[in-house]
Design goal:
Helices cover 83% and strands 0% of the residues. It is mostly helical and 282 residues long. It has one domain. Helix 1 packs parallel to helix 12, helix 2 packs across helix 10 and helix 5 crosses helix 8. It is globular.
Length: 282
């Protein structure tokens, strides 16, 4: 195993843990739209020194930055819709679980990154295990609307994974791309929240401020580590390892939100780990 892939996988794993924490904060918010807008604004503010200190992105990177801002806006709106309609343990596995296979497929088509048969098998098994996390426990029933929004969010996740891989490579600087991404994303989400909430935005923003401040640190961590991993490694393995966030998310949902985890989901976590190992070997 070479040093670079190991570093990339560790970065992706750290990104997965931070993403689960960020999602937990979002689920606990009273107003998820305002919460996400405030969190993104805080991220942009924290990273603003990089706008001057880091090199300005070349023009070829800007098409990815602008496209990425649109994709992440769509992801946030779909995520909020899914989380509003279903438990975190129901919608989060679908949002994250369908993304690795889609990201791997997009990487083959867009970035010309080949996948070996072993990698394809690992991707398929990992995606199946992750989606199975969302299957209801005995006596339960899935919510069609929540799962539809979650699946749509997964498509956005796969899309921005591949887009950002291209963008950060074109930018030549992870920190520069990271800072400008959050500035653009904060602008679109804040504008949406202001339009939808109107005069109530300020009061609701004050209510969400303390928790959004903590979430912003997780947000910067998950996205920064993902960008770094994508800048030095192929998309498919990074995307798949990052989707282990569902395991951490399921644990957090069980411990903090008191949502059911169960033996079945524990077994699926083991299957997922084996699938990711198969993917990496491939």
């Amino acid at each position: 195993m070479s040093e670079t892939p190991l570093i990339a996988l560790l970065a992706a794993l750290g990104s997965a843990m931070a993403h689960a924490g960020m999602t937990l904060f979002t689920k606990q918010a009273r107003d998820m739209l305002v919460f996400r807008a405030v969190s993104m604004m805080l991220c942009a503010a924290l990273l603003s020194p990089l706008l001057v200190l880091a090199p300005f992105p070349p023009w070829e990177a800007w098409r990815f930055l602008l496209l990425g801002a649109g994709i992440i806006w769509a992801f946030n709106m779909l995520m909020i819709s899914a989380m509003t309609r279903g438990q975190m343990n129901l919608v989060y596995p679908v949002m994250r679980g369908a993304a690795p296979a889609l990201a791997g497929l997009f990487a083959v088509v867009v970035l010309n990154e080949p996948l070996s048969p072993l990698s394809v098998a690992g991707l398929a098994l990992a995606s199946a295990a992750l989606v199975a996390f969302a299957w209801p426990e005995r006596g339960g029933a899935p919510k069609a609307a929540a799962l539809a929004f979650a699946l749509s969010a997964a498509v956005m996740t796969a899309s921005y994974t591949v887009n950002d891989a291209s963008g950060v490579r074109a930018a030549g600087s992870t920190l520069s791309y990271l800072a400008w991404f959050f500035v653009l994303s904060a602008a679109t989400l804040t504008a949406t929240a202001l339009i939808r909430r109107g005069r109530r935005f300020a009061a609701q923003a004050r209510t969400e401020l303390s928790r959004a401040a903590m979430s912003s640190l997780f947000n910067i961590t998950t996205y920064g580590l993902a960008l770094y991993a994508l800048s030095i490694a192929p998309v498919a393995p990074v995307a798949a390892v990052r989707e282990t966030s569902i395991v951490f998310g399921a644990i957090l949902a069980a411990l903090v939100l008191k949502e059911p985890f169960g033996v079945r989901r524990a077994v699926l976590a083991v299957v997922l780990a084996g699938a990711l190992a198969l993917l990496h070997l491939g």
